[in-house]
Amino acid sequence: MSGALDRKDHNLVVWELPYTESFNSQSFLRQLLGALSENRAPIKAAELQRQPQATLVKLAEGVTTSGIEIEAEDIAKQSFNLEVRFDNGSTAKVYLGRRNSVPVDMRASSLRSSLSHFGDRTPVEILISPIKGSRIKHVAVF
Hints:
Blueprint: H1 4-7, H2 26-36, E1 46-50, E2 55-59, E3 67-72, E4 79-86, E5 91-97, E6 110-114, E7 123-130, E8 136-141
Antiparallel strand pairs: 1-2, 2-7, 3-6, 3-8, 4-5, 4-7
């Protein structure tokens, strides 16, 4: 995900999702699916509303999303809580972040999470709350 494989300048390949995560964790699985979808999904139209403690992503009318990409200002601090709001008024919480098991110089600058597979619910808004000193540089939905 860092681009090292594409540039062929790698001595070692490091899987960026920590092996310490449980495959029973929905947030972990969403992050894995999001990472695997990189470069395959087009960016969708959305409105960003910056708030003091969070950023609200509002999807454009009629736009559906299968995932979100967040780029952190500091690659060493990549932790975000997401509250996904659906068309039926319900919500779901998703965590998106990295642990310290991957050296900072080998991390990608952005994180992706799949927002598919919520049954018949369709995401309409995503509230992103940075935690652990993280700050948002860029947000995109796909």
